[in-house]
Amino acid sequence: MEDASNTPILPLAEGFENASREDWTALVEKALKGRPIDKALGKSTYEGVTVEALYRPETGNPSPARALGSLSRNSTGWDIRQVHARAEPSGVNADIKADLNGGATSVAIRLDGAARRGGDGFETDGLVMRRANDLETALAEIDLTRTAVALQPGAAFLASAGALLAVAERRGVAPSDLSGTFGADPLGALAETGSLPGPLEKQMAALMALASWTSQNAPRMRTVWIDTSIHHDAGATETQDLAYAMATALAYLRAMTGAGMSVDDACRQIGFTLSVGTEVFQTIAKLRAARRLWARITEACGASTDAGTMSLGAVTAARALSRRDVWVNQLRATCACFAAGVGGADCITVRGHTDAIGVSEPLARRVARNIQTILVQESSLAKVADPAGGSFYVERLSDEYARRAWTLMQEIEAGGGMADALVSGRVADTLATSWAGRERNLARRRDELTGVSSFPNLEEEPGQVVEPDRAVLEEIVEAARAADEISVPDAPDIDGLIAAASDGASITALSKPLAGAATQAPALNRHRFGEAFEMLRDASDAVLERSGRRPTGFLAQIGTPADYTARSVFAKSYLASGGIDAREAETDVEAIAAAYQAAGGDLAVICSSDTLYATQAEACARALKEAGAKVVVLAGRPGDAEAALRAAGIDTFIHAGDDMLATLRAMAGEIGMIE
Q1: Rounded Cα distance, 568 and 555, in Å
Q2: Global pTM?
Q3: Per residue in 378-412, pLDDT tens?
Q4: How far apart, in Å, are the Cα atoms of 544 and each of 540, 541, 547, 667, 675?
Q5: What secondary structure does DSSP assign to 528-555, as a single string?
Q6: Which phi-psi region, left, alpha or beta, contains residue 199 (left: φ > 0; alpha: ψ -120 to 50)?
Q7: What distance in Å separates the CA atoms of residue 405 and residue 290, rounded to the nearest whole number?
Q8: Which domains are delineated in the chain?
């Protein structure tokens, strides 16, 4: 048998001339009929990075980001971490068991809004945990020595950490055997709600006390977990998201080392979660740039290579989820999860496809974790540490993201740091501007949303979510109020808080060490890409409920199918994106009035070819107006005939590239669908 090592390598390029970029450019521009390549095939990201049509060695980054730090994935791949935000503790417990049995490898628990503020009452956007007993119920029969628990506690991180440690103590589990994170991120909580229930200085002091205790007693836990989802949802570009994450980490790193912790110990207390969207290569570059940035920061601070290894999580972006045609969210989640895996995330959370409308029911949770399981186990995506490494495109994009994020982080630092940037409103203003730019592209369908602004389905079945049992939640809150007299340390004494939590002290009582004058900042406004179109769909649903029918558009299809089909299909989808149903009728100008009156409708859209528009559009518009159409629309660009067409009764024109959202809103207002 021939030795494979001695087999000559077949040079695939042998016999071909070495083509230059100029040769390639000439051929491409010939195929594009003279159009410049950059305009035809290139694009620009929201941070202004130019994405070229072709990357060669001279355009790539000669210093691969993959050389900067190793991954901290487990032996079977990345950590599949699903978030649990059901309100009832028993419901959370059932979901945790189902997830762990179905392939999840760790648990994230999000507290409800009231608990995250350390306040009274309850909300239904997370676990209603008012005492350690409630968390114990949520974690019943879960082996805390084998399952990492990541808390998402908002401003109540000190109280929730005491509760988790009290649960472990009751079960005889040593703090050193726990793994996960206490989720302390007061700057993130301030950005999310616009308020902290006390001075920021007290929050930072509590963070430092918890970090010091954790470093000494629970080395497998991390105190700080920076989650920039609120910035991402508010409109942040990828580089802004990176810069805010790093500036926040610097604030915590500075506070911990200032309180006497070593740089290595402080670095080991910090982890990150970044939101990831459906732009695959941009997401890969973003995560690789994050490792590069953190490696540079920890190196500059004097941390060892081991301590500076980044613990990097990813969560599929909430802003990409739609409330309409929710099944498409599964495809968005798959793209985002794939990109996060290739980009080197250590743990990944996939949101359920119904998360935008409420708490995910079992099917949505199962699909979300199976997306990850398939990518890890069947696609073997986690077996290669950095599959994108060496790609000229990805290396260049990673480098651009890292450099731009570094520059923005330096600007934040020069302006007083992340806390000052939040309190002053600079972050809110910056993100509002970023969102406005994206909103314009969404309105014009330069950024399309399948099932929302493209290919909508007015007959879709709504997604199913879990409804909370409010009676159970009331009982939980009342039981906690009865325990408010339990003594709690005035200072952030971790051992004292554990004892108080074990005795049954409430979250409100355990948060007393952080009480005082509230810290205020402009809250960041969360957005989803489809929200503006979904508001029109909601208005259409309200009309349907009141009157038994949706607002209706009459498609006046003039000529033969060859004349009108393309524009008729376009108009039907266009109207449906705004919640307006379409009724089609093939007719001629002479019969148009009778056809409209027979079919009925709130508005009419003329659909035909430019040739027939030139001879029949004006007469058709006049006939439709006389038949009672409130709004007459022409599908196509008016060109030089706009004045004459408007004079004949056409109110507006719809075509690719127009401001679709503004046009639909105007139509909805004219027909009384919205005010």
Answers
A1: 7
A2: 0.92
A3: 998 888 888 888 888 999 999 999 999 999 999 99
A4: 6, 5, 5, 17, 16
A5: -TTHHHHHHHHHHHHHHHHHSS--EEEE
A6: beta
A7: 9
A8: 65-456+506-518 (3.20.20.240), 531-670 (3.40.50.280)
